[in-house]
Amino acid sequence: MRTQIVFGCLAVVGVLTAQAAPAKAAEAVPDPTTQREFGAKLLVCNVCHGENGVPKSAAIPIISGQQETYIAKQLEDFRNGHRNFEIMTWMANTLTPAEQGPAAAYVAKKSWPAKRADAAPAAAATAPRGIAVCQACHQQNYLGAVQAEGMTAPRLAGQSYEYLVEAMRRFADGERANSPDMAQIMTGISVADREAMARYLSSL
Ligand code: HEC
Ligand code: HEC
After folding, report:
1. Residue-wise over 85-104: b if at least 16 C-beta within 10 A, else e?
2. Based on CB atoms within 10 Å of each CB, which residue in 4, 102, 139, 159 is the most buried?
3. What are the tens digits of pLDDT across the range 56-65?
4. What is the dotted CATH code of the domain comprising 31-112?
């Protein structure tokens, strides 16, 4: 299923690349709502991240309505190899450097998808231990925010359990190294506590 999605997607990108013509106004900020080629590139994102913001699988993060500067940084990190995930490196590279910022703005402006009816039950009244620390950066409601020094903490509330727990594991195991702060924080948290936190955050 995942392989099919990937191959379907690569085929679309192949077509796009083949058609790409150097016909854009050099000075203007790229706008996916008026530039067909750019708009078409962003349609490809929906193959995995979903048309209405609901990703096609739980391992794929929600990006619609995510913090804009966080999205922009991730696209840059995928591009320059600070964050490793082959498909996303590939996808980030379909965008020109000038399109990256406008792409992030476009995605961030969409709304975060409504909670699914069959989602985990509403957050348990008691937040798991240790999670208060996360609010310093991810904010009280875990909606994320721009931090000092230009860092941006992403929204965690309502992200899928599978994606969150895996992201936390990768920070802890040093596989995701694009945030020394997060790597350090996650190394100090047990697997059981990470699972409890991910469960809680996904239910918000
Ligand atoms: C073939 C499937 C696929 C396509 C197409 C795709 N993505 Fe992704 N994307 C993923 C997966 C899977 C991840 C999670 C990577 C990981 O686990 O580190 C991801 C992660 C991301 C992230 C990081 C989100 C976060 O919370 O850290 C951003 C931003 C993103 N994608 C943007 C895009 C954009 C913009 C496009 C279109 C140009 C796109 N993606 C196309 C599969 C895809
Ligand atoms: C010092 C500020 C800070 C604290 C405290 C913090 N975070 Fe983060 N977190 C960040 C930043 C900044 C990022 C984005 C890193 C990047 O650029 O990829 C992030 C990213 C994440 C991600 C990746 C989300 C995604 O979409 O890929 C998860 C999951 C996460 N944090 C969970 C937590 C949890 C759980 C805690 C508490 C135990 C916590 N964080 C505490 C700043 C912080």
Report:
1. eeebbebbebbeeebbbbbb
2. 159
3. 999 999 999 9
4. 1.10.760.10
Residue from 44, 54, 60, 171 whose mutation best tests the ligand 1 pocket (most atoms within 8 A of CB)? 60
- CA nearest ligand 1 atom 43, residue: 48
The crossing angle, in degrees rounded to 10, of helices 36-49 and 97-109 is: 60
pLDDT tens-digit readout, 158-181: 999 999 999 999 999 999 999 999
Inform me whether the pLDDT recorded for 68 exceeds 60. yes
Distance CA 164, CA 201 (A): 8
- Nearest atom of ligand 1 to the alpha carbon of 71: 29
CATH topology for 121-204 is Cytochrome Bc1 Complex; Chain D, domain 2 (1.10.760)
| CB 89 less than 6 A from any atom of ligand 2 | no
Does any ligand 2 atom lie closer than 6 A to the CB of residue 178?
yes
pLDDT (tens digit, 9 = 90+) per residue, 82-129?
999 999 999 999 999 999 999 999 999 999 998 766 655 655 557 899
